[in-house]
Design brief:
There is one protein chain. The chain is α+β, with helices and mostly antiparallel strands and 430 residues long. 40% of the residues lie in helices and 11% in strands. Strands 1, 2, 3, 4, 5, 6, 7, 8 and 9 form a nine-stranded mixed beta sheet that branches. Helix 11 packs antiparallel against helix 12. The longest helix has 24 residues.
Amino acid sequence: MTNQHSSARPPNLTFGLEIEFALATTFFDRGDPHQQDSRQASGIHDELAPLPRINTNGNASICNRIEKKAIKHIVATLRSVGVRARSPKDSLEIDAWYITTDSTIEDPTGGDYAWAAIEINSPPLYFSNSGIDQVQTVCRILTSRYRINCNESCGLHIHVGRERKNFDAVPLRNLMALLWSFEGQLDMIHPLHRVDGDFCANFAGCTLGYQLGILGEDDSREKWKQGLDEILRTKSRKDLLDLFSGGCRGHRLSYYLGNLIDYKDPGADACQKKTVEYRQHEATLDPIRIGHWIRTCIGLVEFAHTVDTPVLKAFLYARIEDDLSDFSVVNVLKAVGLPVQARYYGLRLLKEKLERERLEEKEQEPSDTKLDPSSSEEEYHPIPRVPNANEIIAQNQQRRFELWDSDTSEASSEFMEISLGNSASTTRRE
């Protein structure tokens, strides 16, 4: 097949993120459960105002006071190193990191800590080296200063936008057709608890999935192909939003489009963020993991804006019926021009597979109370600098769809066994 690529210039893309975690604190009259850990746990709330010297035991009033003190402490920490930050009590600053709480975050089981449920929202950032650097800086500050637990109740959400503009119908249709076709492959990146959860539902639960009857264990390939037909027939952004609403279950989808709704109230519309939200990544403050996922989310949107729709259509119909063993997440990422992320996630899948096998041999379960380390994966998986628009076009022309007619190529087979090691996609084409 002769590859065809659009020369369209990718838009100025912006991104933001939400990170959820539990912050460990101790009372001044309690012992330190991890005295060898130099990161702060005591004094986060007691140095500001004494709290009752009793276990919180889920007491809402005490937990609320701890979280308010913790938020104030984090804001002060970030400001002390030159990062603009604000709490719910501060005036609105669009370029400041917003520190708040989230009632869906659960305390880890065990341990002698008083936990604060924290959510951190970044300001809108341009996809650039400085934007990525700012995210990684904040993550390093938090993990080096505080004891943090990212358990299964926590998540990492990435928003991708076009500055203050809404998405046009054609690139949005391209994006949703791509995500619909390869949702199962992309699910392989994520752990089981982030695949089809209450706050990150898969496409089987959206309006389109419900209409096609692909709920529960019914995962007919023909129905997914029918769904692709419906997506490619849409003519407007509203048509797409109708297909990808919450459907019968009313949950937010992993790929959430609700922020793109055009409200009649001009004031509300002007203030609303016009973003596609990726909700399925597990919570982490590892700057390298976050950086690669941001690059992946951005790369999918770039691809949707620069690919010729007829070429994409032919590609998707050729691949939508493939098993995961025939076309893995590594293949998908390489095909859309993300070879660095293909290698990164391929190696992560292999590492996770080996860790699962080790735990199975010892009949152990991962600890829910484990504190996230202050170190990261940086020395093993550095993130390359962000290319400019012309470089993106050149990369697209060289790399996209390189796997179409070469299933037995070295590029296609290099990570096949690695990708198959992850069983996260339990309700997708297998």
